[in-house]
């Protein structure tokens, strides 16, 4: 949030995201209480995200995507214009989870008729993100480290990736992405919906 003369001003992306989250909940006919039960997230946290009083974390968005049956890229693309076949680097949507040190760039925004998408991820040294479930069960992921080190845990199996390493997996349960440092990590994530 930015601070102006009248108090904090919500980030425009957070406002559009909050509006879309509220709309998705309404489309499903769920109260905040029902959504809280389905996601395991408190009603107050959900309400604050929908009103753009707080910027949602990657873990929160992942839980919401799971109940709405969307990947994070799909959700984020729904608050942007219809994606063009060619997306210039300067026009690629960037979203940040400031709390965890995660920056996500949609290299190829998803399209309704396509199953694959590319995402660039950046994690600050020491960043640790845990997803309790995949947004879509059976989601295929290819994780290619461009620079730095990344530790990925899929279920109970841990993988250490360095420069140029690529891990392919199908996600059914919890995952964890951690940057052990000492430097930040930059990686490409290819996501393919089942």
Question: Could you walk me through the main structural features you see in this protein, from its secondary elements to its overall organization?
Answer:
It is a single chain. With 194 residues, the protein is of the alpha+beta class. The chain is built from five helices and twelve strands. The chain has helices spanning 12-28, 32-39, 43-50, 58-68, 72-77, and strands spanning 2-4, 7-9, 94-97, 102-106, 116-123, 128-131, 139-147, 150-154, 157-161, 166-171, 175-178, 185-192. A six-stranded antiparallel sheet has the order 3-4-5-12-7-10, with no helix packed on it. A four-stranded antiparallel sheet has the order 6-11-8-9. A two-stranded antiparallel sheet has the order 1-2. Mean pLDDT is 88; it is low at 1-5.
- Gross morphology is globular
How far apart are the first and last residues' alpha carbons, in Å?
36 Å
Number of strands: 12
Low-confidence stretches: 1-5
**What can be said about the biggest beta sheet?**
6 strands, antiparallel
**SSE run:** EEHHHHHEEEEEEEEEE
Cross-sheet strand order for the largest sheet: 3-4-5-12-7-10
How is the quaternary structure best described? single chain
- Structural category: alpha+beta
* Count of individual helical segments: 5
Q: Specify the helix fraction band.
A: 25-40%
Q: Radius of gyration, rounded? A: 17 Å
Strand content: 25-35%
Mean pLDDT: 88
